[in-house]
Amino acid sequence: MANYHSVIEKNVSLMIVLTLVAVSFGGLAEIVPLFWQKATTEPMATLRPYTALEMAGRDIYIREGCHVCHTQMVRPLRAETERFGPYSVAGEDVWEHPFLWGSKRTGPDLDRVGLRPITEQWHREHLRDPRQVVPESNMPAYPWLAENTVDWSHMERTLKVFKNQFGVPYSDQDIDDQMNKVRGEWADATEEDAVVAYLLSLGQARREER
Amino acid sequence: MSQFWSIYIIAIVVLNLVGCAILLLVNLKMTPEEARNETTGHSFDGIQERNQPLPRWWLFLFVGTLIFSVVYLVLYPGLGRFGGLLNWSSVTQWEEEVALVEKRTEPLFEQFAKVPVDELHQYPEARDVGGRLFANNCAICHGSDARGAKGYPNLTDDDWLYGGSADAILTSITQGRNGMMPPMAAAIGGTDEAVHDMALYVQSLSRPDMTSDPQVAAAVERAKPKFAACAACHGQDATGNQALGAPNLTDGIWLHGARVEDIETTIRQGRNSHMPKHEGVLSDERLHVLAAYVYGLSRSDEE
């Protein structure tokens, strides 16, 4: 056999192309089929879209970087399901854009925090000063959340983007209803109200399995 | 997974393995001419590149990875819909793990369930189990040392809002509790002075020495008759009422703060405390062990 490999070795461009081809096999086998699997593309039957208040809370959750220390991904390991609740499945996150699975647990996983018997009052006190309720906590305090009111200026657009671009089944009526609440009862909602509403919504799709 | 995607994945995986094997074999062989020549023919500055076969150890590692892949794909999922001979999946592994632990712990919980709550706390094993349950379910509010926080009762001081009997503790955990003190400022006169007087009076109930200050003594005298409004829940002698969860005001234990300012806030705004119910969150057997653990927290001296 002649030294065919010398052709590749002496031609960097060809080598780059062939390397990319070789690397792509893994993705073609492991990732591409997921785009067409029911388990990953169909929402769970019990899933419901976020309310405007929860959506605002989610945006603040991202802004404050909560996902840097908190995961939202319970793995199928007994120690985790015992502590947090049912393990996460893909069908729960079909409407998550972007998903907030996280990759580092400095704090506990939050994917099931809405299922835990924790009062709203506790969440508020804990956000304002974590060490007030958990002396050994190393979580930073977020006292400004209780002082700032939610910036609603982008909410209508956000909901429409989730509806039209991401296929979240809000009807036009749903969006009108949500925006009426935004102009009404939620007009003066604090960022803390929004974050707590979001936290309490986490895991609700799995309430029956708890 | 549909037939198409199954075949698609199998095809890629098999082609990859076969392709790697062929690549390896092709590069192993040398033409007789190449084998005769010790060099590749490259020469620069009089330095020649030798033509060496692949090192054996490297070759065996390569072959080893190919064999490993084949064995892996036979035993574990990887080839489309074929689940592997071991039928392994992360979910079945989790189910087996849960079932195994349940099989090991259920007899233990059954055994604990036969022991009344007020005796169970003396079993070291039950205390260990209870401690883990407490850490995971209760410590978030009551603290990892069970000494509570402002607004969250200390469970180690043998001072009980709803009673410290085994039954009362089990009910508190299982059904939850709703503690509600209404705003009382209006009922005692409504003025800032009246609220301040009452706060001093309530504080003096557990600190009689305070009245040696004539100003405090005067305030206490002014507030005393108005305490009737408070007595409906806290009792004439201010020792509280466990049926309502009204705290004893004479014992120097303060759920919402001991400072005069704290007490004034309590009088002005009232307090709403909510202990969530844990029925359905934990099994009955676990609630039983947990109640025993909490029961034992303030009784460690008995043993």
**Span between N and C termini of chain B?**
61 Å
CATH third-level topology of the largest domain in chain B: Cytochrome Bc1 Complex, Chain D, domain 2
Largest sheet of chain A: none
User: What's the CATH H-level superfamily name of the largest domain in chain B?
Assistant: Cytochrome c-like domain
Biggest pleated sheet of chain B? 2 strands, antiparallel
Mean pLDDT score of chain B, rounded? 90
Helical content class of chain A = 40-55%
CATH C-level label of the largest domain in chain B: Mainly Alpha
Radius of gyration of chain B, in angstroms, nearest whole number:
37 Å
Overall number of strands of chain B: 4
Globally, the shape of chain B reads elongated
Summarize the helix and strand pattern of chain A as letters: HHHHHHHHHHHH
Tally of discrete structural domains of chain B = 3
CATH architecture of the largest domain in chain B: Orthogonal Bundle
Helix content of chain B: 40-55%
Any guess at the CATH architecture of the largest domain in chain A?
A: Orthogonal Bundle
Describe the structure.
- Chain A: It holds the Pfam family FixO.
- Chain A: Keywords: Heme, Iron, Membrane, Metal-binding, Transmembrane, Transmembrane helix.
- Chain A: InterPro entries: Cyt_c-like_dom, Cyt_c-like_dom_sf, Cyt_c_oxidase_monohaem-su/FixO.
- Chain A: The chain crosses the membrane at residues 12-36.
- Chain A: This is Cbb3-type cytochrome c oxidase subunit II.
- The complex is a heterodimer of chains A (210) and B (303).
- With 210 residues, chain A is an all-alpha fold.
- Chain A has two domains: 1-36; 46-209, Cytochrome c-like domain (Cytochrome Bc1 Complex, Chain D, domain 2).
- Chain A is built from twelve helices and no strands.
- Chain A is globular and about 75 Å long.
- Chain B has helices at 3-28, 32-36, 56-75, 90-113, 117-120, 124-137, 139-142, 166-175, 192-206, 214-223, 228-234, 260-269, 284-297; strands at residues 39-44, 47-50, 177-181, 271-275.
- Chain B has 13 helices and four strands.
- Chain B is mainly α and 303 residues long.
- Chain B has three domains: 3-75, no CATH class; 99-176 and 276-302, Cytochrome Bc1 Complex, Chain D, domain 2; 180-275, Cytochrome Bc1 Complex, Chain D, domain 2.
- In chain B, the strands form two sheets. Chain B has a two-stranded antiparallel ribbon. A two-stranded antiparallel sheet of chain B has the order 3-4.
- In chain B, helix 1 packs antiparallel against helix 3 (56-75) and helix 9 crosses helix 10.
- Chains A and B meet through helix 1, helix 2, helix 6 and helix 7 of A and helix 1 and helix 4 of B.
